[in-house]
Write a structure and sequence with these properties.
With 536 residues, the chain is α+β, with helices and mostly antiparallel strands. It has 3 domains: 80-219, no CATH class; 221-431, no CATH class; 438-532, Glucose permease domain IIB (Gyrase A, domain 2), CATH 3.30.1360. It has 26 helices and 8 strands.
């Protein structure tokens, strides 16, 4: 029993940390858009291919304007560690979130100032130069080390822990000015100094260990690629996939290369640095992304088509709109949770035993074809055009995705149709008739509550009721596609009621609840926050 409780606490802690990653990650599509457009349209090969020297050539107005876009996108990718430090503190602070974010900002700069100075003053500079690949220039510091998002998360966690512990601290009257929230940035600065000393001597070993892990995965060949993609997708229902993929995307686990004289770590950073520099995109780095395109554009729409054809004839009209809109969302943006959680709730084996396996094989196929297409958020058609088509076939080998997309369309359709019919899975349109009213009719619930004198004239009220009421909610956060909620008692969560509000699924693990709505959560989240009286 105690092990289960410990597991639930660990899960909740990882979920809380993971949700803070979504703040800077949500910024990446915009930054990537600037970088993709800026780098692609100013690339020498693109200009020469389409004979656009007079319009986009060096020195033209458009070239200068697009170069600004390129620089604006690059600054985000070059400073993700700082953004993660602030995001972690902002997301995990119990109160006075703005002060916590400022504390992390101060701590981050103090950490780099201390680390850079310690490298010089304690004789580490020459030793680190001999190792090679560790020293770089960033944030105005020369001969420092890029700790990436790990450094940002490290100092952010320390600063928010100090903030939550001491933001109400009281001092004697003579120094009372430094108490309360005024103490948080001071504590953050001190944490940065200590953290900087630690990083100056410890980070080289951590960096070499991380690089070694990346090398091990690289040497594992297609098995390592398969393993990465399978675990990445298998963690989607738990909301922990951010914790898993982030080291590959943003640290030396995903590789280290030198581009334009700078050491670049992390697969995503490598891809976009190569794009900005007009270089050929490394398929070794892009393999952590490109495998999503065949499934997002081909696989999921085919799975939806299979569900439609397997639905009862009298219900096909009802599910057609849902499956069509979800398919278009998957194709265009790569956001798949409505379809993906439908698969999960129809059959865990269909999700983990079939879908995740097919997903992982896609990673093997794109590696075999050496496809170098990256993305910022998810592998939809828009990202494929921006980061595959526009940079050009010579740099990305994007044409290799076309047969894979067609193959995965056929593969998902026939495999899903067979599994649904063979095992009689309850995919949309195959539910028992008596279940339909309970699961999909809102009016029955409203009538029942109104008969008892309770007001339920809004979706937010129904969602809160489905979560056990206001008193049962301890924490609430709207993520990219789901509501992440901490509850006091998970036994009183009403999954059927939450489904009647439009949720495609509800995951309960210990005291952590995730209610999945897909892209419409961006409007549902604020409405529920207003209903709960949560200030932004």
């Amino acid at each position: 029993m105690s092990k289960n409780k410990e597991g639930s606490k660990a899960f909740a802690a990882l979920q809380n940390v993971g949700k803070t990653f979504m703040l800077p990650i949500a910024l990446l599509p915009v930054a990537g858009l600037f970088l993709g457009i800026g780098a692609s349209f100013t690339g020498a090969s693109f200009i020469k291919m389409y004979h656009l020297e007079a319009i986009l050539g060096p020195g033209t107005f458009l070239n200068r304007l697009l170069t600004i876009f390129n620089d604006c996108g690059s600054v985000i990718f070059n400073n993700l560690g700082l953004l993660f430090a602030v995001s972690v503190a902002l997301g995990l602070a119990k109160s006075e979130k703005g002060v916590a974010a400022l504390s992390a900002l101060v701590g981050y700069f103090m950490m780099y100032a201390t680390m850079t100075s310690a490298i010089v003053n304690f004789g580490e500079l020459e030793r680190l130069k001999k190792i090679g690949g560790l020293l770089t220039n960033m944030l105005g510091f020369t001969n420092t080390m890029n700790t990436g998002v790990f450094g940002g998360i490290f100092i952010g966690l320390i600063c928010v822990w100090l903030h939550n512990k001491y933001y109400k601290i009281k001092f004697p009257d003579a120094i009372s000015f430094f108490g309360g929230t005024h103490f948080s940035p001071i504590a953050g600065a001190l944490a940065g100094i200590v953290g900087g000393f630690i990083m100056a001597f410890l980070w080289p070993y951590i960096a070499m260990g991380i690089a070694g892990l990346g090398t091990l995965i690289g040497k594992s060949g297609y098995f390592g690629t398969f393993f990465y993609a399978y675990v990445y997708r298998a963690l989607i229902p738990f909301g922990l996939h951010h914790v898993f993929y982030l080291p590959f995307w943003q640290t030396a686990v995903g590789g280290t290369v030198t581009i334009a004289g700078k050491s670049i770590v992390g697969a995503q950073n490598i891809v976009f640095a190569q794009m900005a520099a007009g270089q050929k995109i490394s398929w070794e780095a892009a393999r952590y992304f490109a495998f999503e395109f065949p499934v997002m554009i081909g696989g999921f729409p085919a799975a939806a088509l299979a569900m439609y054809h397997c639905a009862k004839k009298n219900k096909r009209k009802d599910v057609k709109g849902l499956l069509l809109s979800s398919s278009l969302t998957s194709i265009l943006t790569g956001i798949t949770e409505p379809l993906e959680f439908t698969i999960l709730f129809a059959s865990p084996f269909l999700f983990w035993g079939i879908h995740c396996v097919l997903f992982a094989f896609s990673a093997v196929f794109v590696s075999l074809l050496k496809i170098g297409v990256g993305f910022t958020f998810s592998g939809g058609l828009l990202d494929m055009i921006l980061y595959g088509v526009l940079p050009g076939q010579a740099r990305t080998n994007w044409l290799g995705l076309i047969p894979l997309i067609l193959f995965y369309f056929a593969l998902y359709y026939f495999v899903f149709k067979f599994a649904i019919l063979k095992f009689n899975l309850k995919t949309p349109g195959r539910e028992d008739d008596e279940e339909e009213a309970v699961l999909h009719t809102k009016q029955d619930y409203v009538d029942e509550k109104n008969a008892n004198g309770e007001s339920t004239d809004s979706i937010p009220a129904m969602i809160v009721d489905g979560l056990g009421g206001k008193d049962n909610i301890s924490t609430f956060e709207a993520c990219a596609t789901r509501l992440r909620v901490g509850v006091n008692n998970s036994d009183i969560v009403k999954k059927n009621l939450l489904k009647s509000t439009g949720a495609v699924g509800t995951v309960v693990h210990g005291k952590g609840v995730q209610v999945i709505y897909g892209t419409k959560v961006s409007t549902i989240g604020p409405e529920v926050e207003d209903y709960l009286g949560i200030e932004g």
